[in-house]
């Protein structure tokens, strides 16, 4: 199988992303991880850019042993000298030197004629070859260059000593078909092309960087360039993790191999995201938070029965521990039951169905159902199953205004099965609720403590109330209640404590009568 070299430029083109600035220690950390990931070449920086960049490239070049380290230089002697200064410590120093070849860039930016550009390119490669055993030459904006001129300058670059020729789509303008055709054209029109490796370098301005990279491979590219998470100038570069996984998953289509250790992808991606501060979009292919998440019931059911129904990549392939069946309003019973089992809840069918109903009601109101929400719902059902609720809150209504006395009206289903209603005032809404409930429950309540907190984050988080009380002079009991509204949660917590007290009494009587 044909081997494709992976050239990573996270630390050079990736760092060119607006807002990213990595220090030497951070660059070194990423470089070590790129080495573990198995990239063949890593571009560690642009040594002429700053003393800091030169130092970082030097440190990386002296540390990394299993990937070749390179640095970028303009076709300017002082840039090449700076690169040599940084890279001479490397096991096999490699330079990446470039000059633009498109009419727009030559005319307006370089202000050179095509002949002058050829001369500058050849001179710089020859100069670099005095120091570097390996010189990669890039035709910046190759895709928008005149094909015949491009073929001519590539031929001259090879004659001057370049051993890798990179043909970037610098502004992300190409379509896959067109970008592939450029490689085919070079293969057919550069007489000495077989002496070198051809390389792709794609930008993502039209969202086609990865597709273009794959098209280059199909048309003879031996090396592909890109970055982790696709970071880079403007809309970024081809995302290497996507390229690697596409080549592996569609081996049947591409029939090539790489040295990448794919199960290092997750770790590499996380590290780059964390150190650069570039957040990975949730739906990003391969490494996005949702890449292995299934939310809808039909998909979840399929994946539970057979993962390949909806997963073409296994999470393990990229070093992810498992897929994620996200429970939300589109989820179905299969996934909900499976999650309950995973969480250790052994509920009967009826309790599970009740829990599922409660879950769906909550899912309608909340963006995301958190693990804490599920614990609450499932625990509630489990307690219900074990305890047989004695007092159950039916409804609650509170009138509150800064100029009015808070009044609560509550309806509670009592142990006899009837629904009783009562109302009471209080210094605040919670006290009014507790006073009304105390009139309904048959006994003396002594409230000892009361706390409310939110479960999870966000404006739509559930409220949890905890009540400590004694009932008819029992020992202190704790009751918990959860609801979207803290007043409802408070009423539930209050009744939960009373129910626990009654249950305890029933148990004691049962034990006494059996002795
Ligand atoms: C497509 C790419 O990603 S290319 C890489 C882009 N990366 C970077 O630019 C990051 C590092 N760059 C830098 O730190 C600075 O730009 C430096 C140190 C390289 C140069 O800084 P300055 O000397 O202040 O020049 P400045 O950046 O303003 O302008 C670039 C100059 O280089 C020239 N130039 C651009 N590319 C090349 C090239 N490949 N070969 C020779 N000269 C070039 C420009 O024409 C311009 O020349 P001019 O000053 O005669 O007009
Ligand atoms: C310098 C070259 C390789 C580049 O980054 C580009 O053309 O995008």
Automatic annotation (TrEMBL):
Binding locations of Mn(2+): 13, 201, 203, 237
GO molecular function term, any single one: 2-isopropylmalate synthase activity
Region (Regulatory domain): 392-515
Xref: SUPFAM superfamilies: 2-isopropylmalate synthase LeuA, allosteric (dimerisation) domain (SSF110921), Aldolase (SSF51569)
Domain of life: Bacteria
A Pfam family recorded for this sequence: HCS_D2
EC number: 2.3.3.13
Pathway: Amino-acid biosynthesis; L-leucine biosynthesis; L-leucine from 3-methyl-2-oxobutanoate: step 1/4
Catalyses which reaction(s): 3-methyl-2-oxobutanoate + acetyl-CoA + H2O = (2S)-2-isopropylmalate + CoA + H(+)
Stretches assigned to the Pyruvate carboxyltransferase domain: 4-266
Keywords from the named record: Acyltransferase, Amino-acid biosynthesis, Branched-chain amino acid biosynthesis, Cytoplasm, Leucine biosynthesis, Manganese, Metal-binding, Transferase
The keyword Transferase is assigned to this record: yes
Family matches, as PROSITE patterns: AIPM_HOMOCIT_SYNTH_1, AIPM_HOMOCIT_SYNTH_2, PYR_CT
The protein's required cofactors: Mn(2+)
Subunit structure: Homodimer.
Family (UniProt): Belongs to the alpha-IPM synthase/homocitrate synthase family. LeuA type 1 subfamily.
Function: Catalyzes the condensation of the acetyl group of acetyl-CoA with 3-methyl-2-oxobutanoate (2-ketoisovalerate) to form 3-carboxy-3-hydroxy-4-methylpentanoate (2-isopropylmalate).
UniProt name for this protein: 2-isopropylmalate synthase
Native organism taxonomy: Bacteria, Bacillati, Bacillota, Bacilli, Bacillales
Gene, per the UniProt record: leuA
């Amino acid at each position: 199988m044909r081997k494709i070299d992976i050239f990573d430029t996270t630390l050079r083109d990736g760092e060119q992303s607006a807002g990213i600035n990595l220090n030497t220690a951070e660059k070194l950390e990423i470089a070590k991880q790129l080495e573990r990931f198995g990239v063949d070449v890593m571009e560690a920086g642009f040594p002429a850019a700053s003393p800091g960049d030169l130092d970082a490239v030097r440190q990386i070049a002296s540390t990394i042993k299993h990937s070749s380290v390179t640095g970028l230089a303009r076709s300017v002697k002082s840039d090449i000298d700076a690169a040599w200064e940084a890279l001479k410590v490397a096991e096999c120093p490699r330079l990446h030197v470039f000059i633009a070849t498109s009419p727009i860039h030559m005319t307006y930016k370089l202000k050179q004629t095509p002949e002058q550009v050829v001369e500058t390119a050849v001179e710089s490669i020859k100069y670099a070859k005095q120091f570097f055993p390996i010189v990669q030459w890039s035709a910046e904006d190759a895709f928008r260059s005149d094909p015949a001129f491009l073929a001519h300058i590539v031929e001259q670059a090879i004659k001057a000593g370049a051993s890798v020729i990179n043909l970037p789509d610098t502004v992300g303008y190409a379509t896959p078909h067109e970008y592939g055709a450029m490689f085919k054209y070079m293969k057919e029109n550069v007489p000495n092309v077989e002496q070198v490796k051809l390389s792709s370098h794609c930008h993502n301005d039209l969202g086609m960087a990865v597709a273009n990279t794959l098209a280059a491979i199909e048309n003879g590219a031996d090396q592909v360039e890109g970055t982790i998470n696709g970071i880079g100038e403007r809309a970024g570069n081809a995302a290497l993790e996507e390229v690697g996984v596409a080549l592996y998953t569609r081996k049947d289509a591409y029939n090539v191999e790489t040295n990448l250790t794919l199960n290092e992808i997750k770790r590499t991606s996380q590290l780059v995201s964390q150190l650069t501060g570039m957040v990975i979009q949730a739906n990003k292919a391969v490494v996005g938070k949702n890449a292995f998440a299934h939310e809808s019931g039909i998909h979840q059911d399929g994946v539970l029965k057979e993962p390949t129904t909806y997963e073409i990549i296994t999470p393990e392939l990229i070093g992810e521990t498992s897929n994620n069946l996200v429970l939300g309003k589109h989820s179905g019973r299969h996934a909900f039951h499976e999650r309950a089992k995973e969480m250790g809840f052994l509920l009967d069918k009826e309790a599970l169905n009740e829990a599922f109903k409660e879950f769906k009601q909550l899912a309608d109101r909340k963006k995301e159902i958190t693990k804490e929400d599920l614990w609450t719902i499932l625990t509630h059902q489990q307690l219900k199953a074990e305890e047989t609720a004695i007092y159950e809150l039916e409804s609650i209504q509170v009138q509150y205004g800064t100029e009015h006395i808070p009044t609560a009206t509550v309806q509670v289903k009592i142990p006899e099965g009837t629904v009783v209603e009562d109302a009471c005032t209080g210094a605040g809404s919670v006290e009014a609720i507790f006073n009304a409930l105390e009139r309904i429950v048959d006994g003396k309540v002594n409230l000892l403590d009361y706390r409310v907190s939110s479960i999870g984050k966000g404006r739509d988080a559930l409220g949890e109330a905890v009540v400590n009380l004694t009932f008819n002079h029992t020992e202190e009991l704790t009751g918990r209640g959860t609801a979207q509204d803290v007043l409802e949660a408070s009423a539930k917590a209050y009744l939960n404590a009373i129910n626990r007290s009654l249950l305890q009494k029933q148990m004691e009587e049962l034990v006494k009568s059996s002795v």
